Input
Amino acid sequence: HRDLHSFPTRRSSDLLEDLSGGTADVGVPYGQGIVDTFAWVNKNGGVGGKQLSVDSNDYGYQVPRAIALYKKWSAGDNKVSAIMGWGTADTEALSPFVAQDKIPDISGSYAAALSDPEGTSGKAKAAPYNFFYGPTYSDALRAELTWAAEDWKAKGKPGKPKFVHMGANHPYPNAPKAAGEARSEEHTSELQSHHD
Output
């Protein structure tokens, strides 16, 4: 816990957002929501009376650009206080850097690999500086499949439902795939996986 009153007059965060890449359709409103949130916090007195700043950076949903931006943000004496991140591939790629530099990354990726602060699960490296706003993709998919199986049964449908995992072949749709397949083996009669 850090004393908010010891912070400088302005705290900076860098916003890694996709305004022009493959997820810009949802990245643009997400990024605007972050900017609007910072504006609202400042309008209402800031944090501990200190104003916040956020610098928006379009990385086009490209991991090399995200890493280059991170190196700029973490260099020298003007190291950012936090990163407001976005995608799964870039957040996973930045995770070891933010852990080493002790810079929190609050991202739009809910990959389970980012939810193990000590790396004790054996499935991912320690991610003590990664944070996000809800359940992991894996936990959400498990809950959805459990609900679907229970709903199927409650409606008196014969047999078991089918589960199809669909998505492009990259880290975001692949993040919950193993968890979904494991849960579907318990609840469904057929498993299918499709990638674009």
User: Anything to note?
Assistant: The two ends are 45 Å apart (CA to CA). Residues 22 and 61 are 6 Å apart (CA to CA).
